[in-house]
User: Fold this.
Amino acid sequence: MNLQIHIEEGNDKSHVHLSGEIDVYTAPKLKDALIPLTSKQGNTIEVNLEQVKYMDSTGLGVFVNALKSSKENGSKLKLINLQDRVLRLFQITGLQEIMDINATIRGVNE
Amino acid sequence: MESFDFIEMRFPAKAEYVGVIRLTISGIANRMGFTYEDIEDLKVAMSEAVTNVVAHAYREEDDGEVTIGFGVYENRLELMVADHGGSFDLNEVKAEIGPYESTESVENLREGGFGLFLITALMDKVEINNNSGVIVLMTKYLDEIEVGFNDGHVSTRQ
Assistant:
């Protein structure tokens, strides 16, 4: 019930690998990791959610916040490899239309 | 009268316990025979309700507790989440819920307010009582029809 955040930073691209659960407990840590990356002008931040097994509205809030920061600072935020269950929350809330969400993985049981 | 089992638990209203509460509901829902998808929905709905209590306790610097209850019926699971600390403005919460419209500009995107919206989207029935503290009551029914009959010819008649 924790979240591991692994960041690989290049010149104009940052890869963020997340593993674990995003909830009210882990969301602040994720926000602290993402906002500095989105604050760099021209940076592209690719967040890999393949290993995120659980997420709720606190995670949506962090990504909305990071998206705002990227728009303000001229960077790009991409979410990749979302599990079906996680993607579903972006669909239900209409956020899928607004965020750059690529390639999904099928959930184990779907 | 319809018989049911009732389980009640109290936790400190702290973020680190929300994951523990998810494990609890996962266990109960699994025992009742809910599908994988429904269990995931229940985990999110429960977490959202508890997160509201935790966030409120944090803002008020209140070392409060959250009381959760499970009503285990033959055909449904009722979840109760009670905030016995202060109370928050329900109208304010309701005003903030709803999906994003793609016409909204990014600058106007809300960062919060999804919790109650997700609860209503994922559960079959949601009731909120705001008289003394806040009590959220959420119900999810066990599907009578097994998942997998998706050929469009399913009948619920016996």
